[in-house]
Specification:
Layout (H helix, E strand, L loop, with lengths): L1 E4 L3 E4 L3 H9 L5 E4 L9 H4 L4 E2 L8 H11 L6 H9 L1 H10 L14 E2 L9 E2 L6 H15 L3 E4 L2 E8 L5 E8 L2 E6 L2 E4 L20 H9 L3 E2 L4 E8 L12 H4 L3 E3 L18 H13 L5 E3 L8 H4 L1 H9 L9 E10 L2 E3 L11 E3 L4 E2 L11 H18 L7 E2 L10 H14 L6 H17 L4 H15 L23 E2 L11 E2 L2
Parallel strand pairs: 1-10, 2-3, 2-11, 3-7, 11-18, 17-19
Antiparallel strand pairs: 4-6, 5-6, 8-9, 9-10, 12-17, 12-21, 13-16, 14-15, 15-16, 20-22
Helix pairs in contact: 1-6, 1-12, 3-4, 7-15, 13-14, 14-15
The structure holds succinic acid.
The site of succinic acid has 9 residues, from loops.
């Protein structure tokens, strides 16, 4: 194993959160490590919705914060939500300044649209459903032009380096089959979510909760890992991952129906814009009892589909389905992980030297259920805050224990885990299903000791088993009630004891 000393922050992840942090950390030298070329295999690039922010004259950051708190079902940290929504306009303007081509209204302001559980139209979009890719492309161009940022585009995070006090000193990175210990002033995890742990997901399959698992192993606090959001309208045409049919389609009046054309959530015009977990359960129930679930955009969108929702249109046409003429078959897919590494607004975790931002972090803004399109805002706004705070970190002196790689999970074991997670730790959970999932997890732990996806699955499943109520994205058919006093799940493992192979960090 070789060793490299980097005199600045090491950022793991090249999505919106990681790159926002990298840009803002300048002029400190920043090393960004991503497992795939920038813009690939990253959820931000796949986001269809946009950036939620109070941008219209009829809106205000406090209203946005109240909607965020209401969606989060009692577990939102209101101060964090206010900080997030207060950053809304300046974040959208910052992204626009970097070249993100947001849709504009007739007066040149940001055009905003309505998504579920928002009391105002406040989602700034790009080219209808192309927000994620367009925004991230602007950031990638800025990062490539920034002299303080170096990017390793084929580096995989394999471990964290800590000293005897537990302070994080760097990370083990695998490139071209070789391991390198990178010592840095701070490590920022911007590793994304855990959707790939589920067989039905709208996120890149490579996102297996590994950042959360490594942080947990290192002794960082994990917050509310049981809260996973399932998007109700993943397009069910046999693809893995499943293409998304953005919620904005329902904002435009597209309706959820069964195979007989009956409304799944009732006739009211806004019935399909209920909170995402409610809609996901209705879709799940219709599929389970054989009625089928479809998104009918024939009347509401019709001929405008190709130019108003080009990404969804292209995905449907690739699957041989013309959404102007045929309702789109849909199923709930794992879409966003609300829980994760407990982190402050500036990314600081409970472990000195370790920061987390974006979907792998749990900052308190999403609680038990994320409000649509708040995640791109969080990634950019808190990414910038994190960049500023890591830029001020110094250190990297002292001792770091030797790093180690973690074994991969064999493909067939990963498939079994993903199927189990979707079936038993999915939209509707109960004790029997969660216990079955735990049996599989324990078997896989024996077979692939230390495999990070299995540990991530354990954190999610174990916390889901312990939470004997239903709240936000976590629904227990055996405990359908919501407890009056909301409580968080906080998990923390004692750091591993020092080993004899402790080595000097310099
Ligand atoms: C969507 O466009 O439906 C997804 C937006 C989000 O998950 O924030």
């Amino acid at each position: 194993m070789s060793r490299l000393r980097h005199d600045g922050p090491l950022i793991i992840g090249g999505g919106l959160a990681g790159l926002s942090a990298a840009l803002e950390a300048g002029p400190r030298p920043v090393l960004v490590v991503t497992p795939a070329p920038l813009l690939q295999a990253c959820s931000s690039a796949w986001a269809q919705g946009g950036v939620a922010a109070a941008l219209s004259a009829k809106d205000a950051p406090d209203l946005h914060a109240s909607d965020t708190a209401a969606a989060g079902a009692g577990l939102v940290d209101l101060a964090a939500a206010r900080a997030l929504t207060g950053d809304g306009r300046q974040t959208v303007e910052w992204l626009a300044g970097l070249g993100a081509p947001f849709d504009r209204d007739d007066d040149g302001g940001f055009a905003v649209s309505l998504e579920a559980a928002h009391s105002r139209a406040r989602v700034a979009r790009v080219g209808g459903d192309g927000a994620g890719r367009a925004i991230l492309s602007a950031l990638v161009a800025s990062v490539r032009a920034a002299p303080h940022v170096t990017v390793w585009e084929n580096g995989r995070l394999r471990g964290l380096l800590q000293d005897d006090t537990g302070r994080v000193r760097g990370a083990v990175i695998e490139r071209d089959g070789r391991l390198t210990e990178v010592l840095a002033t701070a490590v920022v995890l911007a590793t994304g979510g855990a959707g790939g742990l589920f067989a039905r997901t709208t996120t890149p399959g490579a996102l297996l909760g590994e950042g959360m698992a490594l942080a947990y192993r290192a002794g960082a606090e994990i917050l509310d890992p049981e809260f996973v959001q399932f998007h109700p309208t993943a397009i069910d045409v046999g693809l893995d991952p499943m293409p998304l049919a953005t919620e904005a389609l329902r904002g435009e009046g597209a309706r959820l129906i069964d195979a007989e054309g009956r409304f799944l959530l009732g006739e009211d015009a806004d019935a399909d814009l209920k909170p995402r977990d409610v809609v996901a359960r209705a879709v799940h129930a219709a599929r389970l009892d054989g009625r089928g679930a479809y998104l009918d955009a024939r009347t509401a969108v019709g001929g405008a589909f190709p130019h108003e929702f080009p990404a969804v249109f292209a995905a449907c046409m690739r699957a041989g389905l013309d959404p102007r003429e045929t309702p789109i078959p849909v199923a709930p897919g794992a879409h966003y992980h609300m829980g994760g590494i407990a982190a402050g607004l500036d990314g600081r975790t409970s472990l000195h030297g370790l920061f987390a931002v974006g979907e792998c972090a749990a900052t308190g803004v999403h609680g038990a259920n994320r409000l649509a399109s708040n995640s791109l805002l969080e990634a950019a706004a808190f990414g910038r805050r994190t960049g500023r705070s890591v830029a001020a970190e110094t250190g990297g002196q002292g001792q770091a224990r030797a790093g180690e790689g973690r074994p991969d999970l064999a493909p067939e074991a990963l498939t079994a885990l993903r199927v189990m997670m979707s079936d038993s730790v999915g939209v509707v959970r109960d004790a029997a299903g969660l216990a079955r999932a735990m049996v599989l997890i324990e078997r896989l732990e024996q077979e692939a000791r230390g495999a990070l996806p299995v540990l991530a699955a354990r954190l999610i499943t174990g916390a889901a088993l312990e939470r004997r109520e239903s709240r936000g994205g976590h629904y227990r058919s055996d405990y359908p009630q919501t407890d009056t006093a909301p409580r968080h799940t906080r998990l923390r493992r004692e750091p591993e004891p020092p080993t004899p192979d402790t080595m000097a960090a310099e």
